[in-house]
Write a structure and sequence with these properties.
The structure holds two protein chains of two kinds.
Chain A lengths: L9 E3 L2 E6 L2 E10 L2 E2 H5 L5 H10 L5 H14 L7 H11 L4 H11 L7 H14 L3 H9 L27 H13 L4 H16 L5 H11 L4 H11 L1 H14 L8 E4 L3 H5 L1
Antiparallel strand pairs in A: 2-3, 3-4
Helix pairs in contact in A: 2-3, 3-8, 4-5, 4-12, 5-12, 6-7, 6-10, 6-11, 7-9, 8-9
Chain B lengths: L2 H8 L2 E4 L2 E4 L3 E4 L2 E2 L9 H10 L5 H12 L9 H11 L4 H11 L7 H19 L4 H12 L16 H10 L6 H15 L8 H11 L4 H7 L8 H10 L13 E3 L13
Antiparallel strand pairs in B: 2-3, 3-4
Classes of the chains: A mainly alpha, B mainly alpha.
């Protein structure tokens, strides 16, 4: 049979695959940004080195890999109180598919309250203000962008905790550790100027603000930071979803409802 | 009240005027008994009622049906549909494939990302014109700010086959002459005369029509969420029925590598 179909191509600067001689659809070798993944990296490279290579196109220096790994540990489990993990548990408790549990965590954890979008917006703030306190203070005092968008208008300064009384111990611990590991300027400057920034924002610093600064120190773009934040928070969501299936739905809160316009009550 | 006090006030209970189920007894939907007062409601009308809290006439509901139906294309090449098809080909579940395809429909250059900007533009422009602004200034201002106008221009095509049948239906229902629809056509004429090469697409006309039906931008955004849905199950079914992995299989030659040359990997210096 003569094949007259036009071969269309997907372009990529990330990945090269070479076929087995007997099958053009089977992989003999795969190269990530030029490095032989299965022939050279596997068994040698760290997970965070692979992440850095995929997103930035270069292997990280060991200090960068250490910082990214510390960020990954900080993000690995937001805990069952976090809305994204709560959503994953809603999937797990009912026996939803594994993917549905992670989709639930991603959908909820994508937002502007401690989610991926908040990290994106906070990183845009770093790109605009750098380490200039006056520019930060001006930006934090400005009204949020209310251009029509699929995203709601932000209700608090990105990177800060709207319901916080003071900065939490875990945020301070994370900032101290990451700032000590960073070879760039954002994290150390954030640690030195945290209290002034919190005063300008009217809220305490949040974990998303620390992570945004760390991603800037690792030279990720806001788009990359948003993706990484979504990705790196999934382990906890997965583990908690699986755990709730084991506990069973009778041990999972259902909460009470107060219906404000119950037609049955109105009839009475 | 704010901070932890606000959270404490909301803990352990759901205060709602939207509804609740009382298992084994009844369900309340926006203040109405779902199985009594709303038992005969059309599903699309129930969906629109759930979003807006308002009821719609028979003619309006017929048109709301068409907003979805006329853009349901079971073509597996289209990016969002392709997700449903790939799920079928990869032997995933129908729910996962179609849910992912709907999520992908919230895109920057088509679907929900355009829809909300399209209705925002037409409602904002109408208010500006009512306050004495000139159409020229509104359109040029939008073009300058966003380098385009949501609802005008279309990826992959120049015309839009959905507009004529949609407007024909609207005419038979007596719903073709609302102020936002007239404005959408006036903008199209302005762009055509000015040779802007941005012709009106279906998103502009459905946004204008729904604005005439009283939907706010956010209500419209939620209403059109399932707009592409009907075209997705056929895509999933067909690829699920064919040999596994046979939808758009990519050989190594289908990947055009444009990155750095091969290089020797070595562990970074400690």
């Amino acid at each position: 049979m003569r094949n007259e179909k036009k071969t269309e191509q997907i372009r990529t600067r990330i990945w090269l695959e070479e076929p087995e001689p007997d099958n053009p659809f089977a992989t003999k070798a795969a190269y990530c940004h030029g490095y032989d993944v299965y022939g050279a990296m596997l068994g040698q490279a760290r997970w965070v080195e692979m992440l850095h290579l995929l997103f930035r196109g270069e292997m990280p220096a060991s200090e960068q890999a250490d910082l990214l790994e510390a960020v990954a540990v900080a993000l690995a489990n937001p805990g069952p109180r976090d809305p994204s993990v709560h959503a994953a548990m809603c999937g797990g408790v009912g026996g939803s598919t594994a993917a549905a549990c992670l989709i639930a965590a991603l959908g909820v954890g994508a937002g502007q309250l401690s989610g991926g979008r908040e990290v994106f917006l906070a990183m845009e703030g770093w790109n605009a203000c750098g380490t200039d306190l006056e520019i930060w203070q001006s930006r934090l005092a400005a009204l949020p962008d209310d251009t029509a968008s699929i995203w709601p208008t932000p209700e608090h300064p990105p990177g800060f905790e709207p319901h916080g009384v003071g900065v939490t111990t875990t945020v301070v611990q994370t900032l101290a550790i990451l700032a000590g590991m960073s070879t760039e300027s954002h994290l150390p400057w954030l640690e030195a100027n945290r209290i002034k920034l919190e005063a300008a924002a009217g809220h305490p610093l949040a974990m998303s603000g620390v992570v945004a600064a760390a991603f800037c120190d690792l030279c990720f773009t806001p788009e990359q930071g948003e993706m990484l934040h979504l990705l790196l928070r999934l382990p906890g969501a997965a583990a908690h979803a699986l755990e709730q299936w084991q506990y069973g739905h009778k041990k999972f809160p259902f909460f009470t409802v107060e219906l404000e316009n119950d037609p049955a009550r109105e009839e009475v | 009240m704010n901070g932890p006090e606000l959270l404490q006030e909301s803990a352990d209970r759901l205060k709602s005027s939207m509804g609740a189920c009382f298992p084994g007894e009844r369900a309340v939907f926006r203040g109405h008994d779902l199985h009594a007062e709303l038992k005969d409601v059309d599903w699309v009308e129930l969906y629109a009622f759930g979003i807006t809290g308002r009821r719609f006439t028979t003619q309006q509901v017929r048109l709301l049906h068409a907003v979805w139906a006329y853009t349901s294309y079971p073509d597996a090449r289209i990016w969002n549909n392709r997700v449903a098809s790939l799920a079928g080909s990869a032997r995933s579940t129908g729910t996962l494939g179609i849910a992912a395809a709907l999520a992908v429909s919230e895109a920057a250059i088509y679907g929900r990302g355009i829809d909300i900007r399209a209705i925002d533009f037409v409602t904002r422009t109408r208010k500006a014109l009512d306050n004495g602004a000139e159409l020229t200034d509104c359109v040029k201002g939008e073009l300058k700010k966003y380098r385009g106008i949501a609802g005008y221009g279309r990826p992959l095509a120049s015309g839009d086959e959905r507009i004529a049948p949609f407007m024909a239906l609207a005419k038979t229902l007596g719903l073709d002459n609302g102020p936002h629809v007239r404005l959408a056509f006036a903008i199209n004429e302005f762009l055509h005369v000015g040779r802007f090469r941005l012709s009106m697409n279906y998103g502009a006309i459905t946004a204008a029509m729904c604005a005439d039906l009283g939907l706010s931008p956010h209500e419209y955004y939620l209403f059109v969420f399932p707009a592409f849905l009907a075209g997705m199950p056929p895509c999933y079914i067909e690829s699920a029925q064919r040999p596994e992995g046979a939808l758009f299989p990519l050989s190594c030659a289908h990947i055009k590598y444009e990155g750095v040359p091969k290089r020797q990997w070595q562990r970074p210096k400690q």
